[in-house]
Design a protein that fits this description.
homodimer, 109 residues
Chain lengths: 109, 109
């Protein structure tokens, strides 16, 4: 995504009180999105284009938006790069232990 | 669904080894399906038309199929009635504690 496009659309992040379990489950029910969350579970922050997933850039943008709008990830722009991180603290505050349980289950299934 | 229609399409239930976490999460990411699972979490078995959900019969049939094909519920026909129950044992064997954690989180969110 070009930097100029980014600047016209501010990144929406739901408040912790707005987080909805059904949105979280939907966001995690896709293999690509689960792979992104798994990677972010283990790393504090990562540049969007560097995740080990094999999908078109437009598809990847869609997946990041679903994750962000569900409240799973935080995204911030720095120059031409968009960084993503997991909202560990907010997720723990709202749904104690749940995302970790799901990520761990996926890893071992 | 008419009895004659039912008899032409046998009910498919995935084996426990086939259960996939992403299918389970997708099945649980809908409000109506979550309401069905919550009710079955507390009752051993229930007739399909008696769940406290407000959707059209065809929509309800779709939701039950999603739950059954994901491996969350077992369905059996008895005369003109279709009974549903949760696959507690299989879900515990495959994803220990997970569905209970999700159902409990939804109840308290």
């Amino acid at each position: 995504m070009a930097r100029s496009q980014r600047n016209t659309a501010p990144l929406r992040h739901p408040d912790v009180a707005e987080l909805d379990l059904l949105d979280i489950l939907h966001a995690l029910s896709d293999r690509t999105r689960m792979a992104i969350v798994q990677r972010l579970w283990e790393e504090p922050e990562r540049v969007c284009g560097t995740f080990p997933v094999d999908v078109a850039p437009s598809t990847l943008s869609h997946h990041f938006r679903v994750l962000r709008e569900a409240g799973l990830i935080l995204q911030r722009d720095e120059g031409i790069r968009r960084w993503s991180s997991l909202r560990h603290h907010d997720l723990e505050a709202r749904f104690p232990g749940l995302v970790g349980h799901i990520v761990d289950t996926f890893k071992h299934q």
